[in-house]
Amino acid sequence: MAANPDFREMTAALYGAMSAAPGERDWAAMCRCYHAEARLVRTGLNHDGTRFAKVTSLDAYIENVEQLLKDMRFAEMQIAHDAEVFGNVARLTSIYAFTWKSSSERREGRAVNYFTLVFENGSWQVMSIVWDTERPGNVLPEFGRP
After folding, report:
1. Which residues contact 98 (CB under 8 A, 6 or more apart)?
2. For 70-74, which contacts have Cβ atoms below 8 Å and span 24 or more sequence positions?
3. Mean pLDDT, the chain cut into blocks of 10 residues (146 residues total)
4. What gap in Å lies between CA 109 and CA 113, rounded to an integer?
5. pTM metric for this prediction
6. Residue 86: other Cβ atoms inside 10 A
7. Given 3.40.50.720, 3.40.50.300, 3.10.450.50, 3.90.226.10, which CATH number is that of 8-133?
8. How many Å separate Cα 10 from the centre of its chain?
9. CA angle 39, 123, 144 (to 5 degrees)
10. How do beta strands 89-101 and 51-56 pair?
């Protein structure tokens, strides 16, 4: 086990798995980074302004993303990160830029992923991830602005 892993290879693999055209996402690479019991939590605002947190398994997340991005090219790139390790647990904050393009529209933005990792069976695995995106009133610092 590395004394002070910074998890850049892991986040590169995770963002790389998502950054593809429809039908070309590398779900197998992504699954290798996650614990079998992992939970993924998408947060944000509903259309009426109320907050939500949608909790899923990795399989349910993949199914949902396949539907949400079925006609879109999507890309993510880490622009800043911070990791803290204590024994067999780690906390990773990863700020990333994203773009998605459909045949008629292009969007760009930034977001933050908060990962909790565990060291098990000789490797670090994502046990949970919670994320949110920038929007008015929810803005990340200016560093790394794409």
Report:
1. 74, 75, 76, 77, 108, 109, 110, 111, 133
2. 70/22, 71/22, 71/102, 71/103, 72/22, 72/100, 72/101, 72/102, 73/20, 73/21, 73/22, 73/100, 73/101, 73/102, 74/18, 74/19, 74/20, 74/98, 74/99, 74/100
3. 75 92 89 96 95 97 91 93 95 95 91 97 96 93 60
4. 13
5. 0.89
6. 7
7. 3.10.450.50
8. 11
9. 65
10. unpaired
Place of tokens 């610092």: 141
Amino acid 4: pLDDT: 63
Spell out the domain ranges in the chain. 8-133
